[in-house]
Amino acid sequence: MSAGTYTPNPGAAPVGRMIGAQAALETRMLLRNGEQLLLTVVIPALLLVLFSGVDIIDTGEGESVDFLTPGILALAVMSTAFTGQAIATGFDRRYGVLKRLGASPLPRWALMTAKTLSVLVTEVLQVVLLTVIAFALGWSPHGNPFAVLLLLVLGTAAFSGLGLLMAGTLKAEATLAAANLVFLLLLVGGGVIVPMDKFPDGVQTALGLLPISALSDGLRDVLQHGASMPWGDLGILAVWTVLGLGAAARFFRWE
Amino acid sequence: MKSESARPSPDHRPSRRRFASHPILEVSGLVKRYGSKTAVDGLDLRVAAGTVTAVLGPNGAGKTTTIETCEGYRRPDAGTVRVLGLDPVTEAERLRPRIGVMLQSGGVYSGARAEEMLRHMAKLHAHPLDVPALVERLGLESCGRTTYRRLSGGQQQRLALAMAVVGRPELVFLDEPTAGLDPQARRATWDLVRELRADGVSVVLTTHFMDEAEELADDVAIVDAGKVVAQGSPETLCRGGAENTLRFTGRPGLDLASLLKALPDGTAAAELTSGAYRISGTVDPQLLATVTSWCAQHGVMPDGIAVERHTLEDVFLELTGRELRR
Predict the structure, then answer these.
(1) What is the nearest CA distance from B25 to chain A, expressed in angstroms?
(2) Do the chains contact at A21 and B99, CB–CB below 8 Å?
(3) Position A54 confidence tier, pLDDT thresholds 50, 70, 90
(4) Mean predicted lDDT score pLDDT of chain A
(5) pLDDT mean over B131-143
(6) How many CB atoms lie within 10 A of CB B300?
(7) Contact predicate B127/B168, CB 8 Å
(8) A148 is in which domain, residue-wise?
(9) Do both B260 and B305 map to the same domain?
């Protein structure tokens, strides 16, 4: 490099370009990570295929794929917005990525916007893949698409808040362990593949307040039973969103 | 630890006197506490535009805390910090595009490739350097598709350095840029710092290597226990205050009292071991001439006569009473 190469000429790129670049990088990092792909793509797809084809669980009246698909969509949202985001952000924090970006021209709000975009892009890919599989298995959805979209967005917001809260307060290894454990527990106890009415009444009421149950129940109400707007479930998700994002904003530590 | 390769004498460096130009960085009375521990305790530092300033001190002296306060990571408990005339905390958004930062470690996605990360940092800036050329300049092309966590320590350090300069900043902060590097990689880093300086970029680096400060810095700030105990060019620091030493060997039992009479007041002479002599004081050509002519008068051949110049290490020892870990 010749003389004058380093002559100062500083400046931030336009913020839209920065957010685009950041979202693209975050998405690439996620898709490159084998464990994350297992969590976000392989497990939901496998569960959908397996439980639709094999009569292991009594899913009540109707085709099992009509029961399973809404639950699996809820699981996909949780795997990306909560588990994947918590683990990735936890390690970004541990490796000083958040700190280093904090000294770059990228503002923090732009970094969070980019992370959210990357989560949404991943979810779109998941939903497309899972819907294609579900249709191949004979899925026949009902209901109001706008209600579905609202549930997915609010579910994403609620899980993102909780995931970021975990990533921003715990050590990376603790986040890794806890996020996977929560994923597993909510997979079983959140109405994803096991109908809630399999649990005793008291337990059922408590489990019904979890964000995963609200999301899977709400999606099922619309997609399987044709409900117009599941206000109760949307309400639960809204409360989780406020609590999660509020606590994350308050307690998140960048280093 | 003197380098083996030819090294330009400090006096031949283009002169950029400290306060000839306006300060690009000004820290005054900085205090930073972590709980009951005071990491920085009333630190003052001025950096002139276009210079390389080394913040030199042992581990735990407060170097990183000071640098990170200048980068906007920490809010001062007392004192003021101005970088490029801006407050690093409240005016961070205006400051960040203009500075380059190399953290002591990390800062890269563990799954990112070197060139990919560098390309990304370039995209955050308006007029970045040419990424392939920078990759080649720092020998990072061999990293290929290897992700960050599998790069060697030296490759990780060079990537962090490249990330600090890719946005064409006015001022670059390098925190321990050569810690853990092999001698060849250290030299490559030093060369880049010199190129930055030659192109008008100001550099502030922390180090606990004396030779690094001597080689690179126009200005050295010696930090101990959270304060700057001395600041100046390496030559000034080595000259000022520190007494020099003249050593020679001759026949045992020379009459040192007679020698001292010929020397200026404040000079000391001692026979350390049989026939090994040490003269301490202001060793200038006059003193050297006096000693050799005294020897000639007394029929003494002063073998191995040598003037020992004080190093930054001696200066540090005198100022703090402690050795600097190398």
Answers:
(1) 16
(2) no
(3) confident
(4) 93
(5) 92
(6) 18
(7) yes
(8) 15-251
(9) yes
Residue A161 is assigned to a structural domain of this protein: yes
Q: For B3-34, write each residue's pLDDT tens digit.
A: 444 444 444 444 444 444 579 999 999 999 99
A81, pLDDT greater than 50: yes
User: How many domains, chain A?
Assistant: 1
Strands B227-232, B52-56: parallel, antiparallel or unpaired by DSSP?
unpaired
pLDDT tier for residue B240 given thresholds of 50, 70 and 90 = low
Measured CA to CA, the distance from residue A126 to residue A38 in angstroms comes to 12
* Domain-located, residue B324: no
DSSP symbol at B81? E
B29 lies in a domain?
yes
| B235's tokens | 């030559």
* B183 and B71 assigned to the same domain: yes
Residue A254's φ and ψ, nearest 5 degrees, are -80, -25
How close B85 comes to chain A (CA, Å)? 15
Contact A100 B101 (CB under 8 A): yes
Report pLDDT for A254: 83
CB A114 within 8 A of CB B109: no
Judgement on whether residues B234 and B262 belong to the same structural domain of the protein:
no
The residue range of the domain holding B289 is 244-309
Q: HSE, CB side, 13 Å, CA atoms: give it for residue A150.
A: 18
Q: How far is CA B214 from the centre of its chain?
A: 6
B contacts of A99 (beta carbons < 8 Å):
73, 103, 106-107
Contact B157, B104 (CB under 8 A): no
Share of chain A above pLDDT 70, in %: 100
- Pair (B25, B103) in one structural domain: yes
For B245-287, the pLDDT digits (tens) are 888 999 999 999 999 999 988 888 888 888 999 888 888 888 8
Q: In whole angstroms, how far apart are CA B280 and each of B234, B258, B267, B271, B276?
A: 21, 16, 6, 12, 13
CA atoms lying within 13 Å on the CB side of residue B47: 29
**B58 and B156, same structural domain?**
yes
Question: How many contiguous H segments (helices) and E segments (strands) does chain A have?
Answer: 12, 0
**Over pLDDT 70: what percentage of chain B?**
90
